[in-house]
Design brief:
Layout: H1 3-25, E1 28-30, E2 33-34, H2 44-59, E3 65-71, H3 79-84, E4 88-95, H4 98-108, E5 112-116, E6 129-135, H5 146-155, E7 157-166, H6 173-188, H7 215-223, E8 229-234, H8 238-244, H9 251-264, H10 266-272, E9 275-281
Helix pairs in contact: 2-9, 9-10
S-adenosylmethionine binds next to helix 1.
């Protein structure tokens, strides 16, 4: 494939991702609930586990400052997200989707600044932000530009401050095993498998482009630029939660046990679970 061809493909991927979020992902399906929430487990049984995972992000950010960057902010869809910028003067929401930014503006009004921007080419000065978060966004960037995305987040971070990034792993063998097992059970029962939650999903029809990296691959790719720490954000993916975590199977109890274990061994679960929290400083 030629360089020009690659650039074209990458541009086309980005165009499709933007269009997907503008037209589908950020359509409000009920008050404050977006189509994108179909990728989350919203049942009460999982609520506390998911809530506490969201709050983990805040631990790695400076509690206060002037500007917090939220790269790929979407509409700031979950209430916990507001916590991250509570001690900051402004939250700068940067996203390729104008629909996302309009919804984010509705949510935080004057507290926010809203910028249509690509995480791989941030239109901000170096060292501009006292804190940086980017959640579930870099996996939408074409593979060849993902490292550039991380480097951009690092570039705009102020010295002495830190960034917290969440993206799923491409290879979480335990979770993948259970996803496949679930699909098998569903097939045996005659129900359709939910293909759009498979970790290596790369569809442009039902969802949009996603490319997730593996643990070693990511560490290696970033090693020549800056050190990263990898902690757990959440061990369990939505597939697993929806199928195996049930009220009648003491689901709340098992999630409490898992949360405790994650707190005790954050690096282990960060490496082997579905979603790591990637932290770096400058
Ligand atoms: C899965 S959503 C996550 C949104 C939000 N961070 C959250 O956790 O709810 C991904 C978001 O990233 C945005 N996005 C995708 N590619 C991007 C890029 N190259 N630069 C900036 N934003 C991008 C999408 O428009 C979308 O709003």
């Amino acid at each position: 494939m030629t360089g020009t061809q690659t650039n074209l493909d990458e541009r086309e991927i980005k165009r499709q991702v933007r269009e997907f979020y503008d037209r589908v992902g950020w359509q409000e399906i009920s008050d404050g609930l977006f189509q994108n929430a179909r990728y989350e487990d919203l049942r009460p049984v999982s609520q506390e586990y998911i809530h506490r995972a969201h709050l983990r992000v805040k631990r790695h950010l400076a509690p206060s400052g002037r500007l917090l960057l939220d790269a790929g902010s979407g509409p700031i869809q979950y209430p916990e997200y507001l916590e991250y910028s509570a001690g900051y003067e402004k939250r700068v929401c940067a996203d390729v989707s104008i629909t996302a930014l309009q919804a984010a503006r509705k949510r935080i009004g004057d507290k926010g600044l809203f910028v249509v921007a690509d995480v791989t080419r941030l239109p901000f000065a170096s060292d501009a932000f006292d804190g940086v978060v980017s959640l579930h966004t870099i996996h939408h960037v074409p593979e060849g530009e993902q490292v550039t995305g991380y480097r951009e987040l690092h570039r705009v971070l102020a010295p002495g401050r830190s960034a917290a990034v969440v993206n799923g792993w491409g290879d979480a063998p335990l979770d993948t095993f259970f996803v496949k097992l679930t699909d098998l059970i569903k097939r045996v029962r005659g129900a359709a498998p939910e293909k759009d939650h498979l970790p290596q999903e790369k569809t442009l029809g039902r969802g949009t482009f996603v490319k997730k990296r593996g643990y070693k691959e990511l560490r290696q790719a970033l090693s020549s630029y800056f050190p990263i720490d990898i902690y757990v954000w959440r061990t369990l993916g939505t597939h697993f939660l929806r199928f195996y975590i049930r009220e009648e199977w003491a689901g709340r109890f098992w999630l409490k046990v898992l949360y405790r274990l994650e707190e005790l061994f954050p690096r282990f679960f960060g490496k082997h679970g579905r979603y790591p929290l990637i932290v770096f400083s400058k």
